[in-house]
């Protein structure tokens, strides 16, 4: 496989504000993974969307914010046919004459005729519309397969322009795209129809939509089918009740256990405190819970009103490898704090600082526990929550916030009750030395959480090693802070800056040197594997050949590749001079490469050799050898010295960065 190693930068902070910052950024932007990779330098790319069925119409368009293809036919003169084809696993909602939707239903498909229309529109007819076979989906207005809309024209009106604004929404079983609009302008004439597409908003189509007749009303044989009787759709009161119960059960999910143990310890800390103080700390914890749920609700609302590109479902932020890596680093830093390597400078967060057991929990510590516990809970989904989250995908803003608030209330309910009735936890022992031991045991539980988060990288094994090295950098930074905390009780600002710089340096180096560098295409179209016979063939026809002998276990080789070889200037010279680039991968045992290196008088790598071109059949010129660490200028000089391949050589392809 061709090695494509590009520069990467990884800079993941471990300080506690990152937990809130990452979640907030995710919630507000709601970006797709491929957009996020472009913005952050590309940790990972989203898997390609499944292909749509082949289009057979005069014109097709796939909006960027919806999982659908729009086909348009307009050559008959008496109708413009618009066909919306959703991707596999996605669905549209039934056409309607109004853009409003009841609670529990998705945004209907609507059509408005733009004033720019010069043709005479008689009616809009929906054909071949079939409600979803699943009763629960059918109750929301979902339809199976494509939606076909015919804009009927007056054939006596002659040629003209039909400008229609479509409004629609696509959803899957897990998430929904925001409702969007699409302007379709069809110019009718004697020849083939000319179709143009332009972005629009759903509100433009819903402002004054056309009345849509069904095929049955139009007298056609195609009739929309209706599924058999099924369960009643989820109502708002039932959704709120299910959310409350589901949130309560979330406290028992394994994802929450590390923070649950921490909260139990804080209950013990509260023994003997005034009821008002206990209630206040529990309210701060609940505020952290609500903050996360409202951030998730904001992401859902932003997607539904078109401010974000997609709607993240419950726990779907873990689909992004960068979020998983960030959470691994944050949870690992917490684990080190629990084990006494360093102390988070938040009063009462973990119960011990500078060797002294604390007996009071502060508002910031209680709030952060609520945030951390809720973020860790998002990969888990207990009973009742599946239908509830599905219910929120197409709901108005107020309903979405109400449902998420119900879930947050359920998760916070035990702590509200303990705040009101402190005697509920009187079984816990009084504060003492046992808390230090319990805190350290929780540290090992947090390390187990780190292992669990690592397991989420199974599909991206190339990130294992750089992420592990990043954790070593975090360990070093926490240790550096902890040393001063142990001696002086508190770490100064300068020590925090030093620790942050240390973590940033190690993290950057780990992802730069050890991370997968094939996420962007190489600048050079390397030929591989290396073959002496293939090399001889290129030389016989007068080609200039560059051979780079490299290996994954050779850091100098990686440095050469990233800084001196895989550069635009070198790629331009290779393309201009029709140089044949060959990559000789010596990572595993390769007797042929070993023998060739020996024949060149070398027994080690890095080793780069350029065989100058010449007239086919003529005497070969002496190869140009570059050993060990090289620079871009050295390689450019060597390529210029070697010269171009023979004029008869075919053009050598060079990959371009998209």
Describe this structure in words.
The protein is an alpha+beta fold and 658 residues long. Among the domains are: 156 residues, Immunoglobulin-like; 182 residues, no CATH class; 111 residues, Glutaredoxin, CATH 3.40.30. 41% of the residues lie in helices and 14% in strands. It has a 6-stranded mixed β-sheet, with no helix packed on it. Strand 14 and strand 15 form a beta hairpin. Helix 8 packs parallel to helix 13.
Short account of what is shown:
The chain is α+β, with helices and mostly antiparallel strands. The chain contains 19 helices and 19 strands.
Strand content: 5-15%
Strand order of the largest sheet: 1-2-3-9-6-13
Low-confidence stretches: 1-57, 220-231, 351-359, 650-658
Number of helices: 19
- Total DSSP E strands: 19
Distance between the termini: 20 Å
Shape designation: flat
Oligomer: single chain
Rg over alpha carbons: 32 Å
Mean pLDDT: 75
Q: What is the share of helical residues?
A: 40-55%
Largest sheet: 6 strands, mixed
Query: Structural class of the secondary elements?
Result: alpha+beta
Key words describing this protein structure:
658 residues, alpha+beta, Immunoglobulin-like, Glutaredoxin, six-stranded mixed beta sheet, four-stranded antiparallel beta sheet, disordered C terminus
